[in-house]
Write a structure and sequence with these properties.
CATH superfamily: Creatininase
Radius of gyration: 19 Å
Structural class: alpha/beta
Oligomer: single chain
């Protein structure tokens, strides 16, 4: 179900255990070869394909394109909410959903910069509603699902998501090849080892002068179709677990 296509009366009539899914992504620079709409385009496609499978069991809010992307502002082509503004937006969405009776609130993320604020916002919300024992507050970044595309495509170079990389470039080639610029001659930019196992604060310009991270030069459309199908299947399985939750247990 699409939240935006329903009447308020229909939304009020839904069972309170119907999961509501908020897809959240971004508009930001993606190197010299991909559109700034990349994150939103990829996540929107995965959500659309998921809806075709999951049917009426879940209600999907419209994709939120404004993300926490301040770390890309050096390059232009980026529209961003500051981290604390973004936290407030996510917390408001949780409050909106709970005030309308929803108990299973799910954020599906398509942009790395949203990951930490989404975890923080859902953590804050759980404390805010600490007296409630019927709530399920969840977030997942789509590439956090443990898929292994190299099992089907041994020529996959990357083992993790980068930025405007082999994976994202391949998926945009599969969705909108007309939006992809010349990528074949781009040199790989390794993610590096920034003081692991610690976490180093960074912005994209610290790591990449051209604005991408990874190996976009080895992308192709077939890899993109594979990635999209694997992530869609993983999301469908996860949402089915949420639908089947018994309403009180810790494990799902």
């Amino acid at each position: 179900m699409n939240f935006a296509e329903l009447t308020a009366a229909k939304i009020r009539s839904l069972a309170h255990d119907t999961p509501i899914v908020f897809p959240v992504a971004a508009i930001e620079q993606h190197g010299p070869h991909l559109p700034v709409w990349t994150d939103s385009l990829i996540l929107g496609t995965i959500i659309e394909r998921t809806q075709q499978v999951i049917g009426e069991q879940v209600i999907f809010a419209p994709l939120m394109w404004l993300g926490n992307s301040h770390h890309h502002l050096d390059f232009g082509g980026t529209l961003s909410a500051a981290p604390r503004t973004y936290l407030d937006m996510i917390n408001d969405l949780v409050d909106n959903a709970i005030s309308q009776g929803f108990r299973r609130i799910v954020f599906i993320n398509g942009h790395g910069g949203n990951d930490v604020p989404l975890k923080q916002a859902t953590f804050e919300a759980r404390q805010r509603y600490s007296a409630r024992h019927d709530l399920l507050l969840l977030m997942q970044t789509y590439w956090g699902f443990e898929v292994e595309p190299w099992g089907s495509r041994p020529d996959m170079v990357q083992r993790d998501m980068g930025h405007a990389c082999e994976w994202e470039t391949s998926m945009i080639l599969a969705i909108r090849p007309d939006l992809v610029g010349d990528f074949a001659k781009l040199q790989p930019i390794e993610p590096g080892n920034p003081f692991r196992p610690g976490h180093r604060a960074w912005k994209t310009a610290d790591r990449s002068h051209p604005g991408y991270i990874g190996s976009p030069h080895v992308a192709d459309e077939a890899k993109g179709q594979l990635l999209l199908s694997l992530y869609t299947a993983a999301l469908v399985d996860w949402l089915r677990r949420i639908v089947a939750w018994d309403g009180h247990s810790w494990d799902g």
